[in-house]
């Protein structure tokens, strides 16, 4: 077995090749998997009113959006994506921003992961500084999407008026997640090279206890390579429908806003502790889902820390900072 500590570059290269092979294999078996699901699982639900009504509802809503952009694949991908992601970002941030500005409600603020750093209400100067970066990030993201979208059109992604089946979405999602995990892990780990860290990534790490609107707080080059491109790797491999790309993009925004929120709220379906730990320790937890960190051993500090035990029970109602009685403070 290869020692991941003594051969970090070799193991990282092998992991990248392995991810590429898994993605290729998954894409190859996907059509057969969709057929199997349609033949074996769909008959179990096809006669329910929920299945029929939801299918009609989503299809009719999609047709309105599709017609609004004139069925133009480029407009759907660029203007459509920017509108959907922008709206999603605002909605997802609203509760966290309210808590950071007002320090209320106390019933939720008590779930702050690092209660002694950036304590709510957060210093207005900090919020103002990260908020002023948002228009720049939005503009850079829009330009990057405008440049990247022709590649997805060339790939043959589906921009049709008909929505994909639920089975197509379910089968595409693991590939999209794996593509994002690989793209983000490796671009992020490269950004932690001392030369690049000092010049680029240090800005994103200014907040050792992040707040939700600081999720996209980074230099434009980082926003493109670590923010815009990784979620598009999966669509490039699978050629999935544009609505699946949007759904996955909104899911990714939920993850990144939650990860930077600084609150481990009891109703979160995902614990933000993993990336919060990255902000507090810098050299651990580079990926999105923890898969490559686990394979390459870059989460060992996190696993040793008591937070790992909390991460397994993210939906408890005990505030995370109280649930580690013997936990040491992070440095
Ligand atoms: Zn971050
Ligand atoms: Zn980092």
UniProtKB/TrEMBL annotation:
Location of the Fatty acid hydroxylase domain: 175-298
Transmembrane segments: 73-98, 134-154
Origin: domain of life: Eukaryota
Subcellular location: Membrane
GO MF terms, alphabetically ordered: iron ion binding; oxidoreductase activity
Keywords linked to the UniProt accession: Membrane, Transmembrane, Transmembrane helix
UniProt cross-references to PANTHER family, sorted A to Z: STEROL DESATURASE
Protein name: Fatty acid hydroxylase domain-containing protein 2-like
């Amino acid at each position: 077995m290869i020692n991941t500590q003594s051969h970090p570059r070799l193991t990282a290269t092998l992991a990248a090749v392995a991810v590429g092979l898994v993605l290729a294999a998954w894409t190859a078996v996907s059509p057969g998997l969709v057929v199997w699901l349609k033949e074996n699982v769909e008959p179990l639900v096809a006669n329910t009113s929920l299945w029929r009504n939801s299918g009609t509802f989503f299809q009719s809503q999609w047709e309105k959006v599709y017609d609004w952009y004139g069925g133009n694949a480029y407009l759907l991908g660029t203007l459509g994506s920017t509108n959907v992601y922008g709206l999603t970002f605002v909605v997802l941030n609203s509760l966290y921003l309210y808590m950071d500005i007002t320090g209320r409600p106390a019933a939720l603020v008590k779930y702050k992961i690092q209660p002694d750093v950036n304590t709510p209400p957060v210093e207005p100067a900090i919020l103002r500084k990260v908020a002023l970066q948002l228009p720049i990030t939005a503009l850079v993201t829009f330009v990057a999407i405008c440049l990247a979208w022709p590649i997805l059109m060339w790939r043959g992604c589906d921009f049709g008026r008909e929505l994909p089946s639920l089975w197509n979405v379910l089968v595409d999602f693991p590939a999209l997640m794996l593509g994002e995990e690989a793209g983000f892990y490796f671009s992020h780990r490269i950004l932690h090279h001392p030369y690049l860290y000092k010049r680029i990534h240090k800005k994103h790490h200014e907040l050792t206890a992040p707040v939700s609107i600081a999720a996209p707080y980074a230099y434009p080059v980082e926003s493109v390579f670590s923010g815009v491109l990784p979620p598009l790797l999966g669509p490039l491999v699978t050629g999935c429908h544009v609505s699946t790309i949007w759904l996955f993009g909104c899911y990714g925004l939920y993850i990144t806003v939650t990860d930077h929120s600084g609150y481990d709220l009891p109703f979160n379906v995902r614990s933000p502790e993993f990336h919060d730990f990255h902000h507090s320790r810098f050299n651990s937890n580079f990926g999105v889902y923890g898969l490559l960190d686990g394979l390459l051993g870059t989460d060992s500090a996190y696993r040793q820390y008591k937070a790992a035990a909390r991460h397994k029970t993210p939906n408890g109602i005990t505030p995370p900072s109280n649930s580690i009685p013997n936990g040491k403070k992070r440095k």
